[in-house]
Amino acid sequence: MSGIDVDLAVNGLITGLFYALMAIGLSLIFGILKIVNFAHGEFYMVGAYAYTLIALALGVPVWIALPLAFVVGALLGWLTERTLMRPLYAGYTSWGLMRDEYAVIVTFGLSLFLINLVDKVIGPYAYRGPPLVETSRVVLGPVLISGHRLLAAGIAIAVIAITAALIKWSFWGQQIRAVSQNRLGASLAGIDTAKASVIVFMLSGGLAAFAGALLSPVINASPDVGIFPAIKSYIIVVLGGMGSVPGAIIASLFLGVIESFGAVYISFQYRDAFGLILLMLFLLFRPQGLFGEKGREV
Amino acid sequence: MAGLLRRDMLGVALAVAAIMLPVAGAQAADPIKVGVTITQSPPGSVVQGTQVKDGLEVAAKIINDAGGVDGRKIELVIEDTQGLPEKARAAVEKLITRDKVVAITGEHQSSAALAGIEVAHRYKIPYINTNGWSDAIREKGYPEVFNPGNYNSRVGSAAAATMKDLGVKRVVSIAENTDYGIGLAKAIGEALKKVAPDVQYKYETLDRASKDFLPAILPMRANAPDAIINLMLPPAAYIMMNQLYEQGVAPSAKTWLYDGSGLADYPDFWQNVKEAGKGMLVFGLYHPKMAQPALGKQVGEAYTAKTKNEPNRLLFQAADSLFLIADAVKRAKSTNSEALIKALGETKYTGTRGEITFSKDKGYAFNQWLDVPYVTFQLTEINQKVGDAALVSQPGQPLDKSKLWKPAK
Questions:
Q1: N or C end of chain A: which has fewer CB within 10 A?
Q2: Domains assigned to chain A
């Protein structure tokens, strides 16, 4: 493997880690609510702005601004679930009765609202978030990477691991998995399904905002910064299997590496098309994704 | 009997006068509506749109405070195109057919301008292209379209001259995937072939909506060119510059970074690039040390008072666009589109940047102000104001290499 290949692999994996932070939340929302949140990219955008403005405008140290951005995203997630999502499924015990196309319309509307609100209130100018460390270049063998990006990757690994562990072993994680398997059954077993939905939305919003915050020194916060990461998240959720957290992680890393190598060896201009091509192939030959389950409804 | 008839006629005449006078007065006070198509929301450049809007509003205020044009105030009717051609087309159609504007101006993105001019041409309404640089806009040869702003061939020849003076052998342009970016990249290539045929040149096209350009930059680290020319707009341009710096590609001891997009005077430039901008050579359409007419200084001061920002070239281009329309209305003594187009074609007006006239040569020069002033300067400190940056060349003068700075590594 040549030096540039190592560079591409490392950068692809790092990019994949940030995709995973975004995609896990989306996958959880689909798993438990069976809806796609089309405002997910805007949670990422809000996190990027929250981190940048808290650190720059309020002078808060970056290591405090970072978790605060998570909190802002979680609060936005709570507000979204409580005011926009709850009316869609409240009173429905069967998913067959819920009008999930309303969720598409509502979340699209929320996306447009947030983009334009930020554009008008904060302004159209991009803001570069302060880096976690000032070291602009770190040399690791053939790989040259910024200190911030390296540290952000490490933090992303830790957060993903903690999230996966919480989902698998914690009390609420088990409740969430029960609700995602069978909402009616979980409800009959005494699980508060509404609370599970709130937790998932808050976790999803927090993770997306955290991803935006980690990347704000790299991607520079602007009103439309969340559009592309959101599209990648939708692709990853399908590739990994809708509702599968391990699937979302594996698919994210896979997509990051594919895009990295494809951009150099095939074409950079079609870099964002590789994910869409993979999506089409999976939908044709393995629609359940890597770790999803096949199902049939009559 | 005759007396009665005379009295009736007098009564009728008085009644008619009573009706006509207010109407005539209202017509004289009717504002002159000017349609403006700018980006006010993503995915287009909202930063540019905001600067153009500010420039037009400053100019409108200057005109209206001086009594308007023959007593008629200027009224801006603004439409958001989002930088999208289809929205630009719809915006121009609406402005012409529903708002009945006398002229269209403000457009700052070439793709949107190329769409808008088709509608203006169909309706034969004057279109003042504020900042669409693509030569293709001029090459259409539409008599309604006037171009007082910069054009790709101008940047192409300036960039090529700079590369020649720097003595570089390999040049790479990084262009955004738009009519402006690709057109300019090609224009630079053509110009280099003429002035420096030994220079190896190629260009890379990057998606302006992307947030990661590392896969495109990594191969350059292995085989760095002597100069990289930026042909991208914010925010993608800032991300690309940061990643070029992070990877040690440019600006560096080996590789010059030259900006052909006019980034340096954007209000958010330094906040977004920091050390990545230090050492950048800039094709500058505005520098405080440039000779500027009194109107330019007036507009600049009014802009700074309004926004608390330093003036920039988009402000002056926008202001000139509106001043030219007002001047044409005044000379034509009419807002009839045919009369306006004729008057615009005969323009000889000293705006904010110099005396503006429109060439009648075909191709990129058609209805273009050819002598758009520019300079080349270099940013040598982080957070440096444009006015403090070293002027390294002016039109007609070669690059002053003694003023150039390059990083140690």
A1: C
A2: 3-285 (1.10.3470)
